[in-house]
Amino acid sequence: MSHLIKMNEDFITEIEIKNFKCFEDFKANGFKRVNLIVGKNNVGKTALMEACWIYERNKNSAHKIEAFVNMVNTMTLIKEFRYLLNYDHHDLHVAFSLLKKFNRLLIKSNNKSVKLNIETNNLDVRVSINDFEIDTSLTNYHLFAEMLSDKKNFSKNFIASCKIDNDLMISLYDQNRKKDRLNQYIREFYRDILEFEIINNLPKVFLASRQQFEDIADTRHGLKRYVAIISAILVCQESCLFLDEIENGIHYTQLDRLWQIILTLSEELNCQFFATTHSKECCLESFYNVSKKITYKNVSILKMTRLKSGKIYSSVYDYELLENRLEQNHEVRGW
To answer: What is the pTM assigned to this prediction?
Structure first.
């Protein structure tokens, strides 16, 4: 396998997180192109990936309007606050109440940082995002309206652990410029499928055996999630992709094939990939075995552990260290 493409200089190789969910002061380094985050339940795997995603979405905000819109849209897509998508974010009070939950947020990687600070003094509220001070006295919010309304574009590089909705499938399909490649991978997944298409705002697949399109949700072995993951990789060229609980909805017989596609496309498209897992098979047997089979070494496993003090500790295994531990049957799972 060719490894001539260098990692983008903006890719995350290290992370420092302060005041975000379970992280008061957390650091990790040693990330590669493809990164798998493991550990026991409720140790902060999803929170770590969300923090990396917040950094990725907000690190290049060039002015205060963009900084505010990016931050609000990112926060509304985080698991605990997804219900706020149903609110009218043109209301400043809703937006600020959301941001208050992340006051004094700091996420740093390489030479860039994402910062959020909120100060209240009687009726005055001072908000600064990435050192841009936001005018909280604004009553006319039309400057933000158009950018805030386009939330779906902000979710293209984060695939949550929950059920894949049709809006996400449509958004990914519309942005995909490699539809023939997507269909190739789908046919390898299930030979009876000849084509994937959006018809009347519904994701459909054409079945050779029935000579007709049918709803993708009616097919087997987690095809909908499989298609969403591959579509997202094809869309996220020169960018990062975050996938929570990669094995969710994917039949175990398809894990090796999925990892091979991820490793191959992440290199070809220069995409950095982060995933969490609760599955030992996904982590050890599939991820490691596929990496070894195709001689792909630009990978890491980040193991997260909660110490007795409550502090969260991380250790990162690159390919060589991972190989050494596994071949000697040493524990790296974190479970």
So the answer is: 0.87
